[in-house]
Amino acid sequence: MKAKKRFVNQVLGLLALATVLSACEKDNRAEPKSVLKGRVVFNGEPVGVRSNGVQLEIWQRGYQLFTKIPVYVNQDGTFSASLFDGNYKLVRLRGNGPWVDNTDTIDVQLRGTQELDVPVQPFFVFENETYSKGEGKVNATFNLKQINTSRNLERVNLYIGTTTIVDPNNNAGNAQEVAANITDLTKSITLTATLPAALAGRDYVYARIGVKTSGVGEMLFGEPQKIMLK
Amino acid sequence: MQRFTKYILACLILILSGCAEQWLDRKPQNIILEEQVWNDTKMITGLLANYYDRLPAHTSLTTGWAEFAAYDEAMWSNNDDGRNNIVSYPFDRWRLWDYGLIRDINLAIENIETFGTSLSAGQKAQFSAEFRFLRAFVYFELVKRMGGVPLVTKQLIYDFNGDPSYLQQPRNKEEEVYDFIASELDAIKEQLGNDGSNTRANKFTAMALKSRAMLYAGSIAKYNNLMASPISTPGGEVGIPASRAADYYAKSLAASEEIINSGKYSLYKTNPNLGENFYDAITKKSANTEVILAQDYLVSKDKRHGFTYDNIARNVREDNLSSSSITPSLNLVEDYEYLNGTPGTLKTRNAANTDYVYYDKMEDVFANKDARLYGTVIYPGTSFRGTPVQIQAGVKVWNNASGSFQNVESNTLGATYDDGGLLTGSSGPQRSQTEVTNSGFYLRKYVDQTAMSSTRGIRSDMWWVRFRLGEIYLNAAEAALETGKTANALKYVNVVRERAGFGENSLKTLTIERLQNERRVELAFEDHRVWDLIRWRTAHEVWNGNASNPDAVIYALYPYRVVRPGHPTHNKYVFDKLVAPRFRAPRFFQMGNYYSSIDQAIIDNNPKIVRNPFH
After folding, report:
1. Mean pLDDT, rounded, for B181-192
2. In terms of DSSP bridges, do strands B555-563 and B394-399 run parallel, antiparallel, or are they unpaired?
3. What was the pLDDT predicted at B434?
4. Would the CB atoms of B546 and A65 count as touching at under 8 Å?
5. DSSP structure class, residue A138
6. Do residues B258 and B204 make contact, with C-beta atoms less than 8 angstroms apart?
7. Of B228, B540, B588, the CB nearest to A169
8. Of the candidates B213, B217, B214, B193, which has an alpha carbon nearest to the alpha carbon of residue B203?
9. SS3 for A112?
10. Reported pTM
11. Partner of A80 for a Cys bridge, out of A37, B164, B487, B501, CB 3.0 to 4.6 A?
């Protein structure tokens, strides 16, 4: 009886050991190693957007479940996704980015790492941006160029922040001009933001201009600019 | 041998006769058969109770109650900071796809016809009507969150032929769902019975649901199409044509007027103290002529909840834990107008903004405000259950050398300052502690006055009001205003304002903005705010995620006692307005939040379901 009990214990111990060892075995599927990266561009230049706001969709047919892979666009207009090799369809989700809806599918044959420029047509873009600092102020001067006339201008903003991530949701101060006060797009526009007390003592701030098209949720932005205050 | 044969024979007789008497064929004790349920009015009522209990709500006293602190009515002052730090509302935040409940109701409607042989025709009609009311209620909850959903009104049975596509129903148009709700409610309203009940649906409950649903449909038809780019799908699953607006508003107004003109309900005006009266109007369960439908609770039957335990003011709590979860914001408090009709901004600084305004008593800064403020919010200088709720952030000590005040605050609640007077109130506010208000206010509405109801052992049986006449008046006012009947709109809104202490006919002109504010203050903490902003299509502007937008940020009010011996302002009270210290991320509502996303598993199972915009 005792021997039998010991035998049972030994078997149990062996089983436990086997479980522990087999559990340590690596996953049965390799992680995706191919990378699709690229930029959202207009005229070859990347388009600035709000961090964590704008997404592209990647779809892949041929499997039982058909689910989109959302790919968020970084604020400098770049994106990247780790995927398995295969054939994908990249779609510009309607009503999502600060550009004209274009639902044409872009076919992507991914084999290894691939770079891809996704062309878009914004409603407005910035030209000749210059930033300067004043006494407790930051100025931005720029021209606004209308690319597509199907929608109207709503407003332009200058956002000030302490990090390079600067947008309507991440800022410490901002200046605004509404469309009613911007009658002539051939003239340059100047926005002046007053630095809040908390920022005035800092060595530097980041500034970024953005344009809001009416009827489009997301804004289009220039590049964030580091402005030395001292 | 012969004896043995006799023995066998006796056994055989016993066994065989047992079978003849169907000894094994007994009624099961643990299964209730369809025939039993549908011929027993008590069991049907029990089933109805289950379905009433499962009606969806975004925020109520039990379901999602904490989300009252996730918008602009309040912030969260209990442990954890999740609701003060919502970077953006997720697209699935209001998702609902409760076809389990829809199927249960459809099944009930079919089974009562099939099996209910001993019920009278009248009983059958009444129960069916009540089931259909519940189904309409669920479809309204679905459409206001998801847009058009498949209208399933019969149970779907799979025949195992390998192809389920005949069961896959596409989404109906958003307007079709609203039209279905209206036609169902019209069809059943005369059969509902339940006269005078405020916990089961009667004719006027059906009209209350119709009043609200049609108002939502009308405002979506109007305001969605006023957006620079209306939210819609090509198939109409989302978006209602502008041409339908007038029709929906007219239906809403007719339903509201049917309730108002019936004379069955009246605004609660029993208590001569107008502030207390407004609290009673929502919370008094007996002789309440205002409440049309409520979800009731009863401690003695163990049907109770912990809403009072979690939200009672700190220094009147009876338990040693929790309290103070949902604390109203200064934003809401300032939206209560002064009784002379001027905006409710609190006067804490003098006109030139050079100095504080000094008050003899704390409550004086709230003097002459809308009585509904008292009924909704516990503010400095007021009591709860007869005990003063001591709200004081600290003292402001005058420094002669610098010519300015210095704040002194304590981490000990109820601490005393060097001069023997109070330093920090026993109910805070406190900048960083939990379980004590961070905004300087506490919730009064729905917090139970009954002794011991804030203990975990006893808890509360406060009821949750789903419909009340106050809302119906405001629905009527809005529908009338939107259809150009301004005189009627003024009549209805002024009745509600009169109860709040404004006097007769306090408003002479009316704008939609004024009416929107009226809904905010009358219906605060009744699960209306977020839905109202969604149907007016203003949510993405009010909560735009911008830290410099005062509507998207939660503000607090911190009272201080002035310590300046020898000066006339000594021991008077001043108030600081500030962004609530524990509040982190401005409220951010994106275009993709207007209609919640549909779960991928739903689309996998039924490829005919189209996605909502922006997802």
Report:
1. 97
2. parallel
3. 94
4. no
5. E
6. yes
7. B588
8. B193
9. coil
10. 0.89
11. A37
